[in-house]
Amino acid sequence: MHPFTYTRVSDTREAIDAGRRGGRYIAGGTTLVDLMRETVEHPAALVDISRLPLREITATERGGLRIGALVTMSEAAAHPEVRTLYPVVSEALELSASAQLRNMASIGGNIMQRTRCTYFRDVTADCNKRDPGSGCAARDGYNRAHAILGTSDSCVATHASDVAVAFAALEASVHLLGPGGERRVPFADFLLKPGDTPQREQAVRRGELITAVEISALPRPLRSGYLKVRDRQSYEFALTSAAVALHIKGGVIHEAKVAAGGVGTVPWKLPEVERHLVGRRPSDALWTTAAEKAAEGARPLAHNRFKVALLRRTVERQLRVVGGMK
Asked: Would you identify the CATH topology of the domain 223-323?
């Protein structure tokens, strides 16, 4: 581990000043500390924000929900309003990591986590995300766990977060506070596809601090849930996952929110699936035809072609579960 300075701040202004000078924010530290220990990352300065007043979950005036950036994963998963209004969020959190990590990791840190790509974490391997311009060892290496959607010649790494898939499906937004003041970024624009700059992963400006994730109000009744498919039942990252939310009234689907994880360089929204569902009555045939659109545009690699079919089956299964036709 490389030498670094450590500062604990007590208010957001102090945090932003330290961030503007190049400090890296740390709260639970469940990702950054690992990367520092493995010498993948070596920040010169750490800014401990764990004492900032960003630990509340509150209802918004319009009926949505605002989750403070320092709320832990376990706190968010257990919160009555999260469980009642957005079960897809609770389920995604409870299927993430271990209980010990969920007790430490924050919501803000979770959506900022870096990829689990083994080549990114192996400092002897070529990785454009870690060392821009060095190449992507995963493209010609063992790439079973890698992305089939949103890839580029520079990077094929997946985004690891489960709850980010739920946030993407629900079209949440991220609240940021920085030297330029406050701003709100739609979740779809917050996590960035690799393109030619895979080292830039989030739309966060220098010195900016995540203060909250907000889920806007959605029509009621709203059924939602999260399905994660992985190699083993516990403490494993997704091969594929599906976050689904459906507003069904009068026997007709009036609104559909669907996203997939484990298959994209970012949590992958599925607008074609959503459009196919809206205005139609739930049926076995509908779930099948909608799910067929889930893998449109996929570019599988040598070892992950199975993800195309697995993604379709995962989306179909979760549509059936949430739609009430298991």
From this structure: Enolase-like; domain 1 (3.30.390)
